[in-house]
Amino acid sequence: MTPEALARACADRMWSTDRASQALGMEIVAVGPGTATLTMPVTEDMANGWEICHGGYIFTLADSAFAFACNSYGKVTVAQSNSITYLAPGAVGDTLTATAREVARTGRTGLYDVTVTREDGTAIAAFRGQSRTLDRQILAAP
After folding, report:
1. C-alpha angle with apex 120: 87 to 86, nearest 5 degrees?
2. Where is the Thioesterase domain (predicted)?
3. Which of 22, 46, 86, 104 could cross-link to 111 by cystine, CB 3.0-4.6 Å?
4. For residue 49, what are the contacts with CB-CB under 8 A and spacing of at least 6?
């Protein structure tokens, strides 16, 4: 299996039980070794008291992109730590895009950067996640 096919198969397996991302209307746009791009529409239910997208939803989108990127190598990988910096607001009606890319992967630890943008290309958040790989195969037979 090519690295690209493995990344897609792992994403398909994860997506099949990822109720949180599905419930928020996320879609996987692209996935590859160490990379993932997801989108999410900002609905009225996601607005905070200032009528902009609640930061928790932006974080969740970035975290999901991070998860698909770091799980693209065939082993179950979880978040060890992450942080986010909000740069601009997202509005109700926007479709946000989170693009994750691997910065480093050594042993069981990985480092990933995720940029969340609005449709006009404006960066609204910068997320950094550190991953930890477990000793379990994603595509293992049940």
Report:
1. 10
2. 52-123
3. 104
4. none
* pTM beyond 0.85: yes
Instruction: Tell me which of 128 and 140 has the higher pLDDT.
Output: 128
Would you state the structure tokens that stand for residue 74, as one six-digit string?
């065939």
Do the domain assignments include residue 142?
no
For residue 112 the two structure tokens come to 């990933």
Which single residue is written with the structure tokens 């609640």?
Answer: 54
Classify strands 27-32 and 35-41 as parallel, antiparallel or unpaired: antiparallel
| 122/3 Cα distance (integer angstroms) | 31
* 46 part of a folded domain: yes
